[in-house]
Design brief:
By secondary structure, this protein is α/β, with parallel strands linked by helices. It contains five helices and five strands, in the order ββαβαβαβαα.
């Protein structure tokens, strides 16, 4: 039997947060693959948060809106919080005009604010590295 084909959407791990981004519209097959892969990663990595960056999308249609809503619901059931970050103003306006709601989906203005909301903070490090920092 063939192993499932990974989605074309990269999923990175930063501590206990998974970070991913939608670079373009998802078709039905890609959306299902992405959803399966992301939910599997939440469990496998013990993620408590997921950031989905949509700043590259010019359009979020009803299919993508439903996918994001379903992902947020699945993640909550698995104990993780989902934040969708970087929505463009035109996309938000279109969603409202079409009456599409992202029920249960938290949003942030950008990825940095989304990561902060998930409790992830970058710490300042000296250019000399960890060994130097440990001696201080």
């Amino acid at each position: 039997m063939n192993a499932p084909r990974p989605s074309a959407v990269p999923i990175l791990r930063l501590g206990d947060v998974l970070v991913t981004g939608l670079l373009n519209e998802l078709d039905d097959t890609s959306a299902l693959t992405f959803t399966d892969e992301l939910t599997e990663r939440i469990v496998a990595d013990g993620a408590r948060g997921v950031l989905i960056d949509v700043s590259r999308l010019d359009l979020i249609d009803s299919f993508v809106a439903r996918t994001l809503t379903e992902l947020a619901t699945m993640a909550r059931l698995l104990g993780a919080r989902v934040i969708v970050a970087g929505m463009r103003p035109a996309v938000a306006i279109t969603l409202v005009e079409l009456g599409l709601q992202l029920k249960g989906v938290e949003t942030a203005l950008n990825a940095e604010q989304g990561m902060h909301a998930l409790g992830w903070q970058q710490t300042a490090r000296s250019p000399r590295g960890d060994a130097y920092d440990a001696l201080r």
